[in-house]
């Protein structure tokens, strides 16, 4: 009897350590996907340890992941359009208590699954790597003829502070967290309206999100750029103007050390390389190379944005500033922090509350972002496509924007505006003639 009691107590203790009550289903907090050149990685975030089964089905090709005694608590991600193996994801309840996730595949795959223990940033995770099986000779010949799908650029827009953290407070009680959210929303709307770009709002309401989690959200959505919006404050209320920050060398060094120290417990990747599989020297070199490239691109993007803000009004610093802000420390996403104005200055506080000025700030930031990606487009994105040479500068100077209405077709829009359909398609970086209501098209002038 004593042995049974000890065993029962030990069982309860172990369950308490894992954060699960007796008999409770394991929560599936979400999932992430990374599309690499050799394989696709599918990561399932879990509330605790789990039993799982993975098997493949044919006609059509599918990979089935059964999670025993589990429940889904958030939506599954959509695979990237250029993912070579995964076409879609779906889920359902099986046998009453089990969760089944089905990955619809574009081709047969080899799958390898393993679990990862919690670390400082992530909890329990199930990782599944999917790599294509050997192609047939005919498939190899057809591969060069395939036209690679071009994806939208993803911009992570981070509204600073939020929830229990109000940020700075102006002389008239204006809270920084409210201003940053208003500007972030306006910037996200403008990004979504621009062809070839898509925004991800790190927060879209008044909630508190830890700084490291903000980076994680951007990486989850595979962002090409991270822009954090703030409103500065100073004890001298006369100080005013905008500033733009990137990560300092000291901040980069400390972050590299952190990545190196935690690599044994991380499934995160730098440039597609898993640090867990590398020795200290090689891992540190890989981190440094990735960070140097990221910091350089961050500085270029930040300079473009600062130049546009200078046209809008007074800037506090004429050059890009560098600091060790934690929110800028993603080693593989170019990142900047925009101090839109000094909320501690009564005049600038008033301007920050003005909707028109918020729109002007959003427009200036977007203009800098577009200029940056026009010069440094990531491969595989719609911005990487050369602009149509048939358009003259005069046609572009007189271009207008048209918001698509319900029932519109691309051919009708081209005909109504007396524009060649192929030119309209190329200018807006469309892969076909599919358009959506609310989408904004650029229409060249005559």
From TrEMBL:
EC number(s) reported in the record: 3.5.1.28
Give any Pfam family that matches.
Answer: LysM
Question: Which named protein is this?
Answer: N-acetylmuramoyl-L-alanine amidase AmiC
The family assignment reads: Belongs to the N-acetylmuramoyl-L-alanine amidase 3 family.
Entry keyword tRNA processing:
no
**Which PROSITE patterns does this chain map to?**
LYSM (PS51782)
Gene3D superfamilies this protein is in? 2.60.40.3500, LysM domain, Zn-dependent exopeptidases
Which cellular compartments is it found in? Periplasm
CDD domains (alphabetical) = LysM (cd00118), MurNAc-LAA (cd02696)
Cellular component GO terms held in the UniProt record? outer membrane-bounded periplasmic space
What is the first-listed, main subcellular location in coarse terms? periplasm
- What catalytic reaction does the record list? Hydrolyzes the link between N-acetylmuramoyl residues and L-amino acid residues in certain cell-wall glycopeptides
Q: Which organism is it from?
A: Halochromatium salexigens
Keyword terms, alphabetized:
Cell wall biogenesis/degradation, Hydrolase, Periplasm, Signal
Report the residue ranges that make up the LysM domain in this protein.
Answer: 400-443
GO molecular function (one): N-acetylmuramoyl-L-alanine amidase activity
Q: Which GO terms describe its biological process?
A: cell wall organization; peptidoglycan catabolic process
């Amino acid at each position: 009897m004593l042995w049974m009691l000890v065993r029962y107590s030990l069982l309860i203790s172990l369950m308490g350590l894992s954060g699960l009550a007796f008999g409770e289903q394991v929560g599936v907090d979400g999932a992430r996907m990374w599309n690499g050149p050799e394989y696709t990685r599918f990561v399932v975030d879990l509330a605790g340890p789990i039993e799982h089964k993975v098997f493949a089905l044919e006609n059509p090709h599918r990979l089935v992941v059964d999670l025993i005694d589990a429940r889904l608590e958030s939506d599954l991600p959509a695979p990237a359009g250029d993912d070579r193996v995964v076409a879609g994801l779906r889920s359902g309840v099986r046998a009453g208590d089990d969760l089944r996730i089905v990955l619809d595949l574009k081709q047969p795959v080899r799958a390898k699954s393993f679990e990862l223990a919690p670390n400082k940033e992530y909890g329990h995770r199930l990782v599944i790597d999917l790599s294509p099986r050997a192609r047939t000779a005919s498939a190899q010949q057809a591969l060069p003829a395939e036209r690679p799908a071009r994806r939208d650029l993803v911009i992570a827009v981070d509204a600073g502070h939020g929830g229990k953290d109000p940020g700075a407070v102006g002389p008239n009680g204006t809270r920084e967290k409210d201003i940053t959210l208003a500007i972030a929303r306006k910037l996200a709307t403008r990004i979504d309206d621009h062809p070839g770009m898509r925004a991800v709002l790190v927060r879209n309401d008044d909630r508190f999100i830890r700084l490291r989690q903000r980076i994680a959200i951007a990486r989850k959505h595979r962002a090409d750029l991270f822009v954090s919006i703030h409103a500065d404050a100073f004890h001298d209320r006369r100080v005013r103007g905008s500033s733009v920050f990137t990560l300092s060398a000291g901040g980069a060094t400390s972050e590299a050390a952190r990545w190196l120290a935690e690599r044994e417990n991380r499934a995160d990747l730098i440039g597609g390389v898993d640090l867990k599989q590398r020795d200290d020297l090689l891992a540190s070199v890989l981190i440094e190379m990735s960070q140097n490239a990221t910091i350089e691109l961050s500085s270029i993007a930040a300079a473009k944005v600062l130049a546009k803000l200078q046209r809008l009004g007074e800037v506090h610093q004429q050059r890009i500033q560098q600091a060790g802000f934690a929110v800028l420390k993603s080693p593989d996403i170019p990142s900047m922090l925009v101090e839109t104005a000094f909320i501690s200055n009564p005049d600038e506080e008033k301007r920050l509350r003005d909707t028109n000025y918020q729109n002007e700030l959003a427009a200036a930031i977007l203009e800098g972002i577009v200029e940056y990606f026009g010069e440094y487009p990531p491969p595989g994105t719609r911005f990487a496509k050369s602009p149509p040479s048939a358009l003259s500068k005069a046609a572009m100077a007189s271009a207008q924007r048209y918001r698509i209405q319900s029932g519109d077709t691309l051919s009708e829009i081209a005909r109504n505006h007396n524009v060649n359909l192929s030119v309209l398609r190329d200018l807006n970086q469309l892969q076909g003639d599919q358009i959506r209501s609310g989408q904004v098209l650029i229409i060249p002038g005559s």
